[in-house]
Amino acid sequence: MLAAARKDLLLDRLRRDGRIVAKEIAAELGLSEDSIRRDLRDLDAAGLAVRVYGGALPASPAVADYATRTAVAPDSKRRVAAVAASFIEPGATIILDGGTTSLAIVDALSRTQPGTIITHSPTIAAALLDHAAEVFLIGGHLFKHSAVACGAAAVEAASRLSADIFFLGVTGIHPTAGLTTGDADEAAMKRALAARAADTYVLGSDEKIGTASRYGVLTFDAVTAIIADVPDIDPTARELVDAGATLIHAR
Hints:
The protein contains ten helices and 15 strands. It has 251 residues and is of the alpha/beta class.
């Protein structure tokens, strides 16, 4: 089997099964594990898979740059945002992560609703300029890929805050990899914000379900629930629940 055909087969298995075990597929195809590992390294380098111990997981398309992500799954993000916005009581203090689903939450909120919104995203802060809610913008080193502030200064500022709810954005939600994102500093910032909120809800638009990125953010038992745009009969949804996740279905 040619390398290109092997890689196509591996991608099909990732889509079908949500994971690849190198040893098992090597035996099935009658190939060496080294050959499969080389293919997985190539797929990882191309952004099509995430290598893990013993195999690989499907790579999340949500690790694309901010501008590209605005065109990914917009309807799904709106459904998740509508559920998230319904949890925000008048006068509440909310932390909004960066990202396009958080921007959809801003769009779903009434402009006259009172409260306080904390964010480390200048994009989210700018979108709130015509809202009645008070806005607290956390500063720090600007991670341009995701348009959010990260680093020591941002984590220090976050440690002085408290909120009722944190709406957490991730790039991957996978039964075995958990909640993941594509940058280590951004993952640390998300953990710092989650530590300052009474409840943390994960924003799970459909392109993130069943995929993974390089850096772990939190375990399923460290968040209140995942607002997931996936039917409850979906096999991955069932795997997530079996892995300890609490799902709130957006459809």
